[in-house]
Design brief:
heterodimer; A: mainly beta; 13-stranded antiparallel beta sheet; 3 helices; 13 strands; 44% strand; B: three-stranded mixed beta sheet; 23 strands; 8% helix
């Protein structure tokens, strides 16, 4: 798979008739992608993101994220910010469009201006809200962007090596990812730069089963070049809460849905 | 007066609703209130002498309290600034213009009388349309003075006292804003910024503060704004109609010399969506200056067509660029020319403006460098807005910027403000 499934994971359904040992690298990646990003029909979580710089200085973001699986692999996300204070009540809407050459539709709601700002498609390796996570960690990197090979099967995990098909579009030359054989959740990924040096590590140190779905409850990314790190802690995780698609629209940018109001 | 009373009544009703003890929270009363806001201190100076103004263009402390609360099925929203402004000469409180020590930004209640209807009642900030710091179908009040002196961009939008109704039938979204009394722009009057005074044929400021005759009859001097919109495969299509008044003075009373707000209706449409690697915006509007139907009344602004095309794209990681082409075309330039006195400068029939925005983020997105530029090839003038902001911590934001106007004539839209070129700096603590 690609990135650590930060947000939601899916189908902790074990053993649906496929013998794990027989899976190809692409099949493992496909299952890991499902497990990391598509749990349940919909989901909700409160996220606390702590960005720590090399000197120990901390910045904190808190937001509630709503996610709905729509047609095919497409999804809609609604992110409602609560901290820091200057972005409080901002909302970020993403319509994730999966497919060759398709870009996500993104809007940012600026409450003080009552303005729905359309965001141009961006470099997916850009930092997400100033953290060590990149946009692609959050929304999922296309599983077709890399060539995957199974390197090793050991300790209940698959180890894969993924090499980008378009090396110029990314800052890494390849990465390794360790995926749990039972849950198909990626537990660790290590990124190597163009010189072959390890510079970035993403981990999911804590996984819990929520409503039968193995779920990453904490994810950490270390930037080994800067010495900085970002930790995401997920609470109030819930699946299949019956989110309606109309929540992911301008109406509910203007007036946040009550679904984001969880303490 | 009646209106002020009504406003106060609504405000205090909401306050009492809002302050009613919450049942789902614990802790001391101030924790229950869940108060947020900011303290903002900023100062700015002219970079040249202006014979009609003070050197200091901005000098104020603003404390904002932002309060939101669910009360039963309704949501109450109150956002109020306390202001200490040592540049303003007139500090009598006026809730309409934001003058004085209190500026009520929002005080409204939102509820849904039906699952597919939202109603927001009270003071609120309203925005729509696709332009970036250019407005065609957004006829909600703007505060140009704040914009030109270096307050935060959010102050470009002045509040409206309105009923905002949104209907969500399956085929489209319908938004209807009704302002029972006209809310004009918080415009340039000469009190703080000098401008070209057409009547006197020169730039004036505090020496000739504009006297305006604002339509202010409760109920009859009202405004309607309608939008019908639909998002199709990520493309946002909208149609607009507005019935009200020119938002900044669009005429003059020849007997009294007072600036007036003639009647205006606007009909328009917009489209916004992804094209190639960026976001394309297209918008147009027909400005029907109802009091000058023939186009030859020298005391009332001509009808106009306005067009806008914009494109916004990420140029590199953490660098975005955007550009717009904007055109205002007078509908009866001949009539307008015939009505102008011989000595007065005559505006071209078509005014074209190009804008460019560059935004660079650095240092983990804590440092933002931006430049917004307006340039008019027809007026041969320009307006630059450079800005640097730095998030020192999650709470502290430091800002520096400038407003620079250039032009070859004294009277054109941007050049008229040349004497107001300024730099400013501010610090904001958010909580």
């Amino acid at each position: 798979m690609k990135r650590m499934g930060m947000f939601f994971n899916l189908l902790g359904i074990f053993g649906f008739g496929v013998f794990a040992a027989d899976l190809s690298a692409d099949q493992i990646v496909e299952k890991a992608n499902q497990a990391s990003y598509y749990g349940g029909k919909d989901g909700r979580a409160r996220v606390e993101m702590v960005i720590t710089d090399a000197d120990g200085g901390e910045r904190v973001r808190e937001f509630v994220i709503l996610r709905l699986n729509t047609q095919g692999q497409n999804q809609k996300f609604y992110v409602y910010f609560e901290e820091p204070a200057d972005v409080r009540k901002m909302a970020y809407l993403v319509w994730k469009n999966v497919g060759e050459g398709k870009e996500d539709d993104r809007w940012l709601w600026l409450p003080a201006l009552n303005l729905s700002k359309r965001i141009a498609p961006g470099d997916k390796r850009t930092s997400f809200v100033g953290s060590d996570f990149v946009y692609e960690d959050v929304s999922g990197r296309s599983i077709h962007a890399d060539n995957h090979e199974l390197v090793e099967t050991a300790d209940g995990q698959y180890k894969l090596k993924s090499t980008p098909k378009d090396p110029d579009s990314v800052e890494f030359s390849y990465y390794h990812v360790w995926i749990d054989m039972d849950s198909f959740l990626p537990r660790k990924a290590e990124y190597f730069d163009k010189q072959g040096k390890l510079y970035r590590r993403v981990e999911a140190p804590r996984v819990e089963t929520v409503q039968g779905i193995p779920t990453v409850m904490e994810s950490v990314v270390h930037d080994l070049n800067t010495g900085g790190k970002t930790t995401n802690t997920f609470t109030m995780v819930e699946y299949n809460i019956g989110l309606k698609e109309n929540i992911f629209s301008e109406r509910f940018l203007r007036r946040p849905p009550r679904e984001v109001n969880i303490q | 007066m009646k209106r002020v009373l009504l406003f106060h009544l609504l405000f205090w009703m909401e306050m009492s609703l809002a302050l009613a003890p919450a049942q789902d929270r614990e802790g001391a009363w101030f924790e229950q209130l869940d108060l947020h806001g900011f303290a903002d201190l900023r100062t700015g100076f002219r970079t040249q002498d202006d014979p009609h103004q003070d050197d200091e263009s901005l000098g104020e402390f603003r404390g904002q309290i932002d309060f939101m609360r669910y009360v039963g099925p309704a949501t109450v929203q109150i956002r109020v600034d306390g202001v200490g402004d040592w540049v303003a000469d007139d500090t009598d409180v006026d809730l309409e213009t934001g003058r004085g020590w209190v500026d009520v930004r929002e005080a409204n209640v939102l509820f849904s009388p039906h699952p597919s209807v939202d109603v927001k009642l009270g003071r609120q900030i309203l925005t729509w349309g696709t332009g970036d710091l250019l407005f065609i179908n957004d006829l909600f009040p703007k505060d140009w003075q704040s914009f030109f002196v270096g307050r935060d961009t959010e102050y470009l939008k002045a509040p409206s006292d309105a009923v905002f109704m949104s209907f969500f039938p399956s085929f489209a979204n319908i938004d209807l804003a009704y302002m029972p009394r006209f809310d004009p722009d918080r415009g340039i009057t000469g009190e703080r910024l000098s401008f070209w005074n057409g009547a006197l044929g020169q730039r004036t400021g505090q020496d000739h503060v504009v006297i305006v005759d604002t339509p202010d009859d409760w109920g009859s001097d009202d405004e309607w704004n309608l939008r019908i919109s639909k998002t199709l495969r990520g493309y946002e299509l909208a149609f607009y109609a507005c019935d009200g008044f020119w938002k900044s003075p669009g005429g003059m009373n020849p007997d009294t010399g007072e600036a007036t707000y003639p009647g205006l209706s606007v009909y328009g449409a917009s489209l916004r969506g992804q094209m190639g690697k960026g976001i394309l915006s297209v918008e147009a509007g027909y400005y029907d200056s109802r009091d000058d139907a023939a186009g030859d009344n020298p005391w009332v602004r001509n009808s106009e067509m306005r067009y806008l095309v914009g494109y916004d794209q990420e140029l590199a990681r953490n660098l975005t660029g955007a550009g717009q082409l904007y055109v205002e075309a007078m509908q009866d330039h001949e009539g307008y020319r015939a009505g102008m006195p011989e000595s007065a400068p005559v505006a071209d029939g078509t005014r074209t403006v190009l804008t460019m925005r560059l935004t660079r983020q650095a240092m983990d997105q804590t440092l933002v460098l931006s430049l917004f530029a307006y340039y008019s090839p027809t007026d041969e003038d320009a307006y630059l807005r450079p800005n640097i902001s730095y998030k020192a911590t999650d709470a502290w934001l430091l800002t520096m910027g400038g407003n620079a106007f250039f032009g070859s004539d004294d009277h054109t839209f941007f050049a008229q403000f040349e004497d107001n070129n300024n730099v400013f700096a501010g610090a904001r603590y958010s909580f």
